[in-house]
Write a sequence for this structure.
C-alpha cells in the first residue's frame, strides 16, 4: 500500500507553543516520594534527587511542570510543605487514601523545576482551600520580601521571589470524586474570586480554569460553556483532561485494537469542541482577548486504576506498564497537539515518574517505558511552526470511528533554523505503507536523521528485566530525490524524519 504526505513550509497551522511539551507531578503514589524525591536511594544526591531520574527527565525536555495535583491538591494545605522538615505534619491525603509526610513541598519543587530548567505551573486548592490561601501562596512564591508570606519564603532560604507565572484554579472541580466538588456556576464564581485576589497580589500571572475532567462526564460540554462564559475575563487558559485505554484487552469482549489505534480521531474532536466553546465564550463576552487550551492531564490509563493507597506512604498505585500500542497512541496524541497548535498552547502528560508515567523507578535504577520515546522525539524535534499536512493514504473501517486513515502524519518547520521534522504513525496492525514525503515549496538541503519504533506485538512492553524490549532506533536515512523521499513504514510503527533546509 502507498501513501503521500505533502508538506509546504508556507502552509502552517500556527507556531508551536513549546509549553505543549509539559509534565505533571502529583503527590500521589510514588511520583514525588521514591520518584523525583528519593533520599533513601543509594543513588540520591544531598537534596534527595537522583541523577539517573533527572537525566531521564531532562532528556524529555519538559518546558512546563504542573504541581502538586491533581485530586491531591483539593485537600492540600500548602503551608504544611514549607519550613524545617522535622516540623512538617504527617497527614492523611484523602484523595488517594495515603499518608503525606510533607517532606517535599513548595521550595523543594522550585529547586526541582530549576534543576530541570522547566517552567513551574502551580495548582491552588479550590476544594477545601480558600481564596485567601490561594492569594497567600502567590505572595509566598512571587512577592519581594516585606510582607508576611514573602518574608517566610526568605526565612526558608529563598530571598528572591520565584516568579511563578502559570496558576491552575483548582483541579477537576466538575468531578463528584473531587474534594469540595462544585457545580459549574459555583466553581466559576469561586475561580473568579480566587483569580481576582491572586492577580491583585501579582498582576503578571496567567490563570487556568478547570474544564471537564473527560468527555464522558454527563456535564460535558455544558460545564465548559458555563465556566468559560462566567470566568472569561479572569482567565488566560482553559484546562482539558482526558485519559484513553484499550480496556477490551482484559475482558471477554472482542478486542478492538483498531479503534484504540485510531484514538487521535477522538483527541482531535475533543480539542475542536473545547475550541468551539472558547470561541462562543469570546463572542458572548464581546471580547478581544483569547483563551488557550491547557491540556494539563493526558495519557493512556486504564489498567492500574485502583487509587486506594491503603493509608501508606508512597503506595504503589497507578503504576501502569505501557506497551507498543500505547506508544503509538501517545505519538498520535502529540500529533493532535501539532494539528491543533493554534488552540492547544499548554499540555502536560500525566504524570512524570512511576504514576502513569514514562519513567519507572526502584531504589537501584529505572527503566524507560514505551511511551517515553514518542515524547522525547516530539519535544526535541517539533519546533517552529506546525505545518498543515496533506495526507493521502488508504483507510480502514473501525468500530468506534468508522473509516480512518492508516497513516497519522504531522510535521513541523522552523524558519529561524531551517530545521524540519515529520512524525508518521502507521496504525495498521498488518500492512506496511510505502510513504512518499514531498516538499511542495522548497526541498530540504538534506535529510539529517531517521528513527523508527516498530514491532509485531502490540502488547510488547519494557520492564526492569527487559528494559529495551521496545525502543526507538535510528534507521538508514532515506535518499532525497529532488523534493521527495520514499520510505517504508512497517505495521504498528512510529517514524520520525528530520531535515535541514538551507
Ligand atoms: O493523574 C491522576 C489523576 O487523574 C489526577 O489526580 C486527577 O486530576 C485525574 O482524575
Amino acid at each position: 500500500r502507498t501513501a503521500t504526505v505533502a508538506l509546504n513550509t508556507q502552509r502552517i497551522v500556527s507556531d508551536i507553543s513549546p509549553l505543549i511539551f509539559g509534565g505533571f507531578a502529583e503527590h500521589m503514589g510514588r511520583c514525588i516520594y521514591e520518584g523525583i524525591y528519593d533520599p533513601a536511594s543509594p543513588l540520591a544526591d544531598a537534596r534527595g534527587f537522583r541523577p539517573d531520574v533527572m537525566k531521564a527527565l531532562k532528556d524529555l525536555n519538559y518546558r512546563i511542570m504542573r504541581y502538586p495535583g491533581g485530586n491531591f491538591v483539593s485537600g492540600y494545605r500548602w503551608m504544611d510543605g514549607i519550613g524545617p522538615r522535622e516540623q512538617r505534619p504527617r497527614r492523611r491525603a484523602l484523595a488517594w487514601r495515603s499518608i503525606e509526610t510533607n517532606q517535599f513541598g513548595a521550595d523543594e519543587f522550585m529547586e526541582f523545576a530549576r534543576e530541570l530548567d522547566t517552567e513551574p505551573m502551580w495548582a491552588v486548592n479550590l476544594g477545601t482551600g480558600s481564596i485567601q490561601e490561594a492569594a497567600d501562596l502567590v505572595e509566598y512564591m512571587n512577592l519581594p520580601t516585606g510582607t508576611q508570606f514573602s518574608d517566610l519564603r526568605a526565612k526558608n532560604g529563598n530571598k528572591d521571589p520565584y516568579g511563578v507565572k502559570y496558576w491552575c484554579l483548582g483541579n477537576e472541580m466538575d468531578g463528584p470524586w473531587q474534594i469540595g466538588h462544585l457545580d459549574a456556576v459555583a466553581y466559576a464564581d469561586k475561580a473568579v474570586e480566587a483569580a481576582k485576589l491572586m492577580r491583585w497580589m501579582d498582576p503578571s500571572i496567567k490563570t487556568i480554569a478547570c474544564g471537564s475532567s473527560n468527555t464522558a462526564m454527563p456535564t460535558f460540554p455544558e460545564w465548559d460553556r458555563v465556566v468559560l462564559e462566567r470566568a472569561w475575563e479572569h482567565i488566560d487558559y482553559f484546562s482539558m483532561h482526558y485519559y484513553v485505554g484499550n480496556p477490551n484487552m482484559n475482558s471477554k469482549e472482542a478486542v478492538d485494537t483498531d479503534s484504540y489505534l485510531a484514538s487521535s480521531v477522538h483527541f482531535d474532536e475533543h480539542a475542536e469542541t473545547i475550541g468551539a466553546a472558547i470561541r462562543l465564550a469570546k463572542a458572548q463576552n464581546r471580547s478581544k482577548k483569547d483563551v488557550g487550551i491547557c491540556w494539563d492531564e493526558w495519557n493512556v490509563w486504564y489498567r492500574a486504576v485502583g487509587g486506594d493507597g491503603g493509608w501508606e506512604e508512597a503506595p504503589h498505585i497507578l503504576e501502569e506498564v505501557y506497551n507498543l500500542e500505547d506508544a503509538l497512541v501517545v505519538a498520535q496524541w502529540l500529533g493532535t497537539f501539532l494539528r491543533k497548535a493554534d488552540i492547544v498552547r499548554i499540555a502536560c502528560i500525566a504524570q512524570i515518574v512511576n504514576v502513569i508515567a514514562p519513567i519507572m523507578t526502584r531504589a537501584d535504577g529505572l527503566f524507560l517505558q514505551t511511551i517515553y520515546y514518542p515524547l522525547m522525539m516530539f519535544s526535541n524535534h517539533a519546533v517552529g511552526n506546525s505545518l498543515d499536512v496533506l495526507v493521502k493514504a488508504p483507510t480502514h473501517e473501525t468500530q468506534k470511528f468508522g473509516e480512518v486513515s492508516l497513516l497519522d502524519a504531522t510535521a513541523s518547520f522552523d524558519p529561524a533554523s531551517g530545521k524540519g521534522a515529520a512524525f508518521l504513525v502507521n496504525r495498521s496492525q498488518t500492512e506496511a505503507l510505502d510513504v512518499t514525503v514531498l516538499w511542495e515549496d522548497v526541498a530540504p538541503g538534506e535529510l539529517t536523521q531517521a528513527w523508527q519504533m516498530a514491532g509485531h506485538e502490540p502488547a510488547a512492553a519494557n520492564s526492569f528485566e527487559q528494559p529495551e524490549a521496545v525502543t526507538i532506533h535510528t534507521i538508514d536515512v532515506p535518499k532525497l530525490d529532488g523534493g521527495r523521499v520514499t520510505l517504508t513504514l512497517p505495521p504498528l510503527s512510529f517514524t520520525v524524519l528530520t531535515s535541514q533546509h538551507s
Summary: The mean pLDDT is 97. The pocket of alpha-L-arabinofuranose is lined by residues 26, 69-71, 171-172, 213, 297, 350-351 (CB under 6 Å).
